[in-house]
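Title: Prediction job returns without error message
Component: structure pipeline
Severity: low
Priority: P3
Assignee: unassigned

Description:
Job completed but the reporter wants confirmation the result is attached to the right record. Sequence as submitted:
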Amino acid sequence: MPPPLPRRPVWGESAEPTPPPPVAVGPPEHQTPVDPWAGVDTGGWDLPSAELPPLPPTLSYPPPPDTRQWSGPPAPPAPPRDTRQWSGPPASPAGPHPVPPPAAPSAPRAIGPVVPARPMSPPAPPKVPKQRRGRRSTAPPPSPPPGWQAPKGYVPVPVRRRRRWPWLLLLSLACCCGCPAYYGFPISAQYPARAALPVQVDDLSLRQDSRSTETAKKLEGEVRKEHWLAEDTFAGVYATTSGKRVTVFGGTGFRLSPESDAEAEISRLTERYALDAPESVDTGVRGRHERCAVGSADGSAVVVCTSVDHGSIATGVFTRLSVADSAELLGTLRAQIVQPERG
């Protein structure tokens, strides 16, 4: 007959088995003591033991080495020890055995911890004196080692010392002579100079009527009054067939600062011609400075330009021309009027 099938758990019942309820244990003072040795024969404690084999004889250890400080060659090995009982010195037919002399007493040992000897550091290399920068050493060159031979085909070449004084001399000459020559060349090329009015300059003709001559004399007197150190003065009125009019005036003489003189001349003419802010014009000549400004004269627009270098000053009043054309025409006029005297 087959065994019955296990019972299926009811819905909500745990699959783990339910532990049995704990047994209530009372306080220890209400429990009966139990003797663990009850019913055990404790009359004798002599237990039988098995016979163990005897231990092997103890081997003798070699004597420890001497740790004293080494004071000579190592001693010869000691002979093997005889463990037999000593029965006295053996009889000698030659007589009694000679007694060795007593050993010298050893030095007393220091009591205390042994301090290991510190290794001595190698001696420091000798200090080489520092050589100042820019000075050559006067010590002779190192000699070759003994037995050294030059390779085949070697020819000794003496080393020539480089001399630096020529470079210093050239630099000094460049500083002492180059700078004055750089700044002195424009002065020597522009001063002294002489002035003369040509009758014809390109399409411009010098007007020599009474009105133009009177205007030129008045302008020349003003130049002499304003530039009282001028060596020579000039003034003239030029015109073209198309109606363009150019008035030019100025003087010659040495000028140390041409740039400030050009600005001062434009400032002097600002009120007369109602000039606007002046603008600088590049002349392309070192030492020559030019300023131009737009104004008016007798109800007509004019351009006033002044050009100053170390040897002369030239000012022009132009009508019916732009600032660039006026500056270019003033350069052409002063090249024909002012001629430097080169000795």
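Comment from assignee: result matches the submitted record. Helices lie at 165-190, 210-226, 258-273, 323-337.
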